[in-house]
Amino acid sequence: MTAHQRPRFRKVQSFRADYAPTTITQYESERSGMQVIVADRKGPKVNGYFTLATEIFDDSGAPHTLEHLVFMGSKSYRYKGLLDKLAGRAYSNTNAWTAVDHTAYTLETAGWDGFAQILPVYLEHVVVPDITDDACVTEVHHIDGEGNDAGVVYSEMQALQYSSSELMDLRARRLLYPENVGFRYETGGMMEALRVLTPQRIREFHKAMYQPQNLAIVITGEADHDDLLRILDTFEESIKDDIPPPNPQFKRPFVDSPQPPPLEKTIVETVEFPEEDESTGEIVVAFFGPSCVHQVEATAVNILMTYLCGSSVSVIENVMVETEQLASSVSYWWDSRPNSVIWFQPTGVATEKLAFVEQRLIALLKEVASKPLDMGYIKECIQRELRQVKLQAESSEGFYATNIITDYLFGKRNGATLKDLETLDEYNILDGWTEPQWRDFLKKWISDAHHVSILGKPSMKLAKTLKANEEARLAKRREKLGKEGLEQLKEKLEKAKKNNEKLIPPEVLDQWPVPGTSSIHLIESATARSGKARSLGVLDNSAQKVIDAAPPGLPLFVQFEGVPTNFVHLTVHVGMTQTPMKYKPLLPLFADNFFNSPVLRDGQRVDFEQVVKQLEKDTISYQISSSARLGDYEGVAIQFQVDREKYTTIISWLRTLMFDIVFDPVRIKAAIVKALADIPEAKRDGRAMAQEVDMALHFKPESYLASKRTLVKAVYLRRLKKLLEKEPDTVLAWFEELRKSLFTFSNMRVLVTADVDKLANPVAAWDELIKNNPGLDATKDVLPITQPFSMLNAEGQSPGSFGSVIIPMTTLDSSYSVSTATGLKSYSDPRLPAYLVALGYLEAVEGPLWNAVRGNGLAYGVSFSREVDGGYIQFRVYRSPDASKAIEASRATVARLASGEEPLDRHLVEGAVSGVVFGVADEQATMAAAAQQNYVIGVVRGLEPGWNREILARVREVTEDEIRAVMRDVIMPVFEAGKSNVVVTCAPIMEENIVKALAAAKYKTQVQTLSHFYDDYGLKADEEDGEEEEEEEEDDEDDEDDDEDGSDMTGSDED
């Protein structure tokens, strides 16, 4: 490259992190001021986060609507869907999120070649989008021909605006921030503001905020820097006439804006939220904290929060949850800002105790600060947090991106604060803090500081009022518009849809060939087996040679996965085929107590607090959960992440936890109380409710998925609590029987992911678990893993006779649905390649279902299930103003494709095939994930090594006839009455229309409450207890794969 061709990007700095194999390089454009920060790390995926600081001083929702409109076309590519069709063919996924302080556009790609191809097209969509009035009609808000509000963004916010979390969060922010601070506002948009938001306002916001000098290109993965800078230089040249020159007076959002004043007083307010179950409410408490760019102070906040609330032995959690049982949990989080916000959230609080529990929390915080802190435990928290950060830096795709984005938003643009990522020195500094320093820090920011508390109070009256007001508003609108006005609105919508759906000429997409796969570097994990695992076959590789050369042990089923990690990831996979059905509803309680119970060690009872403290000292993280992530929905996974030298220590812990727990009525009662307190909040989730009712209809009661539903807990746990009070020995005996049924030699398989060469005594170390243990008979064979389809009941095996059920829920403003039909039962099914391509085709962003449903404002999204061996297929509608319309639009679309009436789009087929390639890379994005995938393929699914590569070859050979055949024979039945069942949860105002629509589609229909699907698993109430459940209706749980317990770090993505 000659001097005049040199990209005009200045390298600001480059450094290698001293705690993980990652190099961070920062560039800055000499022309526009755009920043480029690359975190180079090995792996098959390249991830891009194109981030803009977005500050607004109203609730219009302009930042959120813009996030959607960017994908509708750009200056050079005025076609809705071009970006996503291009991404689909290049082994990529695009997405975006809007947070309060920034908007990020994401590009996930398998390999650099695909990423490089899409990058300039994507950036043009971001910086010079084509924002049309028609796009705003469908994407933002419109009134349909029946007078209802719709639109993609509107539907999304409609589902959120009156949720407890949204109402409480927004009120807290209104109290924390004055009107001249952007953190005060709902950047997603309030419904009343979205209804009047104009395209011009959105364009003005784009002009103000979407400037290259306010844009960071953040990339993680294996990047080609020379190619990257060349692409960006060419891109900047292409847009130079479309953007203003860099403004030396440009004010950085949030940084150069007025900062919030300190709170002058403590404020406690009550906020009502719509809910028919008024038994439990929620609390959030907010304190201003130190600046997020002060690394030592920011880390000190995290350590202090862990000390206060990090586990069941932390003082706040221990007193309020475990001892006084005032809340089901006390969670915490921290908003990274120039003036950060520290949040505490007691959950599952009895409504009549909301004020008392808030006062108790504040009193406890003051009490902690009034006494000497436990410096031994603080130092353990520091070391544990340090271990967790190192693990995250190695194993989390988002670790560096999150930190880099925060630094870009609020740090110094010259790179001085970014360089803090080079080391973890802040932990060494904090390790030297004295007790008075820690206590002064606690007093300054929390115990002596003013705060804002919001008491979230459920209200049936508010639910009825909101429903009545909405009905009246819509009726008034329809009357005002009249038949002619509604017809005009319908025509306006149809015109907008037509204008948005301009066909992309094939020659436009053909400018970009499908990239090769040579730049996709899959992580290789070497499988080795010992004990009973050898029966699956032994591979000829270095890891197996190490295991074969190691001292042999008893024949426990152990699969080793050799990867160059600094840690050991250990999973004990426990089957349930020997667990009687009557004990399965106890499993969530068993899991909650697994790490939180007293144990016997050397004949001495050790209290649970000491158990937890020692576990925290010996591990990086631990958890017990459903083994669904291993592809087994009918088992349990006990997982540890530890430093390599703790390998044998954790095996000893496993023996103690499996066989030496003391089941304590006090601990069991605490677990029951916590679980009961969580039920009302769980039932507010419409999506989870629909899924739970679907399980009740299609699964046998002995299924673990069915038995751990909240619809079971709602009755079962209340009765179990009474039985525990009256007959504690009976309940303790049940837990003993449950333990015996789980922890047998025949039930256990072990996965060890580590640098096998460096593992001391890898095989014989497991003898510690088995030897002299009468519960583990090493002569037994390992039992087969339960096949998912075997847990379907008669209706599940042949859906269709039930029909449909509609469940109105006062907590909802939108609707959700699950439709279920018969599906594939095996990964060996010859139709699988065509099935994967067909699903990828239908679900493609800007593909047929996207355009039919989301593009028309009928739902935020639709999707199919991916349980290939479950024996069923599910179609789900998410956040819809009327799920029945989304279902019908989807049915008509699939029918046209399946029959051949509508031809298959060649580019979408190519995108579907590339999507399968991306899926394989995504499943192996980190060392631990690649290792786990080997276990899933070989052990759980019983497939041959290299199956992934075989399926990649087979999907490339799928024909159009095979795709249509799968659509016709496997997918279409999920839309057909008599072949499928439908569950809908919805706002009460939607019930009548949805019932009529499903009946018109020939489904049997019924309307039920959630309590109709309760199951007590044979645990009957005493007659003297009367109608206990009548007065305290409780239903549902959330995600079927939630961790029941654990100490691992948690976080959430902003969507």
Structure description:
The structure is a single chain. By secondary structure, the chain is an alpha+beta fold. 42% of the residues lie in helices and 17% in strands. It has 38 helices and 30 strands. The strands form six sheets. A seven-stranded mixed beta sheet has the order 1-2-3-9-4-6-5, sandwiched between helices. A hairpin with a 5-residue loop joins strand 2 (23-29) and strand 3 (35-40). Helix 30 crosses helix 36 (960-971). The longest helix is centred in the middle third of the chain and has 41 residues, at 460-500.
Question: Summary?
Answer:
The protein has 38 helices and 30 strands. By secondary structure, the chain is α+β, with helices and mostly antiparallel strands.
Total of DSSP H or I helical runs spanning 4+ residues: 38
Rg to the nearest angstrom?
Answer: 29 Å
Taking pLDDT < 50 over at least 5 consecutive residues as the criterion, the unreliable ranges are 1027-1055
What's the story with the biggest beta sheet?
7 strands, mixed
Q: How would you state the average pLDDT, rounded?
A: 93
How are the strands ordered across the major sheet? 1-2-3-9-4-6-5
C-alpha geometry: globular
As a percent range, the share of helical residues equals 40-55%
Structural class: alpha+beta
Organism: Chaetomidium leptoderma
Keywords: Coiled coil, Hydrolase, Protease
InterPro entries: Metalloenz_LuxS/M16, Pept_M16_N, Peptidase_M16_C
Protein name: Presequence protease 1, chloroplastic/mitochondrial
Looking at this protein, list some descriptive labels.
1055 residues, alpha+beta, 7-stranded mixed β-sheet, globular
